Amino acid sequence: VDVIFLDIEMPVLNAFDLLKALGDHESGVIFTTAYDEFAIKAIKHNALDYLLKPVGKDELIASVAKLSDREHRAGAIHRMSDLLGQLGNGGQQERIAVPTREGLEMIPMDQIIYARADDNYTEIHLLNQRRIVVSRTLKDVEKDLPAKRFLRVHQSHVVALNKIDRYVRGAGGYVVLSNGEQLAVARSRKDELLEVLGVR
């Protein structure tokens, strides 16, 4: 894709959630929006270009012309990375985009207690006792979770470290999570878990 024309407010995901879900990409992004206040300042500084609705023909032509300027486009890619970094550090809740049977769902990471493998699917268990079935393997979901906050303690599950209430010793032992559930710890993962928990 050479260029993405992106509105700010959209059904399901807003523009910034969508960009986070896309991850690293080399597409030029031109925002098209009716917002002319704080959002437009961030967009103007970081995006390839922006068009204020209603979009004028000359403005559209000028924006598309910027795509042929490789140096300008490369700079825009770096500025987009900066923008996404700022969004992550600007007090907005970190979320993970996961594909479900209905589409994409944005899940706040601090709501995740653990994720469990279910063949080629993954069950994500949340604080509100909700369970989401994701059409990705546990290995793929694990890649999107920050290693400082989540740990694979067993072949079948990844747990949120701040949701562990207790560790009970044994061959591998098990963890008791904030929702009361007990999950086994693989013997091969025990030492890593204890090290992360500060026991050794």
Describe the structure.
By secondary structure, the chain is an alpha+beta fold. Helices cover 30% and strands 31% of the residues. The chain has helices at 15-22, 38-46, 57-65, 70-89, 138-143, 190-196; strands at residues 3-6, 28-33, 49-52, 95-99, 104-108, 112-118, 121-126, 131-134, 150-154, 157-160, 164-168, 174-177, 182-184. Helix 2 crosses helix 4 (70-89). 20% of the residues are buried.
Content-based structural category: alpha+beta
Oligomer: single chain
Q: What is the H-and-E element order?
A: EHEHEHHEEEEEHEEEEEH
C-alpha termini separation: 49 Å
**How many separate helices?**
6
| Order of strands in the sheet with most strands | 8-7-6-10-9
Radius of gyration equals: 21 Å
Name the average pLDDT. Answer: 80
Q: How would you sum up the major sheet? A: 5 strands, antiparallel
Secondary structure: helix percent: 25-40%
Beta percentage is 25-35%
The total beta strand count reads 13
Rough outline: elongated
Spans of 5+ residues with little confidence (pLDDT < 50)?
Answer: 88-92
Write the layout of secondary structure elements.
Layout: E1 3-6, H1 15-22, E2 28-33, H2 38-46, E3 49-52, H3 57-65, H4 70-89, E4 95-99, E5 104-108, E6 112-118, E7 121-126, E8 131-134, H5 138-143, E9 150-154, E10 157-160, E11 164-168, E12 174-177, E13 182-184, H6 190-196
